[in-house]
Amino acid sequence: MRLSVRLFSSVVQKRPFYITTPIFYVNAAPHLGHLYSAVVADAIQRFEKLVNPDCRVIFSTGTDEHGTKVQQAAAKANLPLQEYCSNISKEYRDLFRDFEVGYTDYIRTTDDKHKKAVKYFWRKLVKNDYIYKAKYAGWYSVNDEAFVPETHTKDEITKEGKVKVSIESGHRVEWTEETNYMFRLSAFKTHLQEWLKTDGVIQPSKFQKQLQEFLANSTYFPDISVSRPSSRVHWAIQVPDDEEQSIYVWLDALINYLTVTGYPDEDLMKSRRAWPPDVHVVGKDILKFHGIYWPAFLMAARWHPPRKIVCHSHWTVDGSKMSKSLGNVVAPSSVPAPSALRYMLLREATMADDANYSETKLINIANSELADTLGNLASRATGAALNPRGEFPALHPHELTACISRQATADLLDRLERLPEICHQHYTNYQFYKVVDSVIHVLHLANLFFETMRPWDLKKKPECHKELDVILHLTLETLRICSIILQPIIPSMACKLLDKLQIPNDARHWEHCMKPSWRVEGAIFETKNIQSGKFLLFQRIYSDKKKIHKKTASG
Length: 555
Ligand code: MSP
Prior knowledge:
This protein has 19 helices and 21 strands. With 555 residues, it is α/β, with parallel strands linked by helices.
């Protein structure tokens, strides 16, 4: 089989950076795991803009609203389907507003433009002869909205007796016999294997290997069903020219990535130049859909597969999988410090392995790093006790040289100078935890430097004020550089700190953190004003909020 793919070469606009989150099921309210997929994508796009401020970013997210799961959830909530979907979809929008997920496009699979795109795509698959009708008999998991091969199921004894579950997800499967439309997935095995040889196409590499092994071990690589009888799944997009069949929710959902780019209006797509996407961010549970099915669907419709899939692992809660039945689902707005949650998610998790959430961990990290290491240093260096005129003081060369001769200064400056390059590398590898580790390490050195130099003693001696200026300058310069670097991780906190230092908006890009003040040749550092007023970056949290609240209430 020959595949010709369409890549637009005509220069209409500069190519944008196109990044996506998965679209979220509306069968339940958002939780911490959903938020994680979204903040990972958001941090990636913010870093892209930080490094490349002129870059046009398309950052899409939204909600996946069709299918049995949603049908059942709306019935349980006793609400009309569209109203139910709109309510949960709004919860996601609110979540993204609260956690600074700065998407440019919000898509719902119930949008008319999306339905049109799905039908058009379906017709393309039919036209290219990748769809045929057949009798399907097999196991189906409503929870995963996926057909599960017999070999991927196992028996489990529950209160209701023996049931079959999917080995991969642990969700129950039901025997299903129906007439479906099938997609010729089997025709794409070699093409997928070729595509999966592309260096770095799935990151981290562990997940790329998983997919390669999955294909290598699949001696039987069957076609897949891409429709369900409308009698069973009525809340779905209908198969064109066949009212009795609904389009499989995963095919419907994946096409959202095309809808965002203007599909099926090819002129619009040509002018936007967004296809193929630069990054799809996905969780490991949906890797197969994105790394096997989606590229195969795209190849069948003659479109390029995505440039890269960034796959993350999962969050557990107090050591257990998050689940409704265990009652441990964490709603992001209910945690003790919502404003620190985004920081913790990006600071704690590695992409390759699962991370564990606990309230204690959140509080400890927020207090020790945001309130103490970063916030407290900023308050001290800008506060009235040491800095009564509210200044970003000048650098005095003679005092600077003297200051550098001290070990604590040399350690700080050495590490700070290397910090941007180190962090750039970590961001590029999507290792946010390493970015934060490196920044926090520098901030520890800055705190040590501050303690060692005892600026409060110098403050008392007018003849030492130039030395004091240098200490304040180096501390504020450290804070400026760290804040610029942290913008993708904690956007509004970093902004608050940069505002305090009166750093203009057009001086907050990556290039502005690459050289500390004392390395900028020929630059004259005059005293500048900083914003007046007491500075509090992050209010410490007390673990037993109720007790504290009670104490205050009873006086
Ligand atoms: N609707 C599909 C995606 C379709 S995209 C074309 C879906 N939705 S979901 O709401 O179930 O999941 C959305 C994202 O949340 C996925 O990336 C998933 O991995 C992520 N998470 C759900 N639970 C999670 C954790 N416990 N931890 C981290 N992320 C997890 O799948």
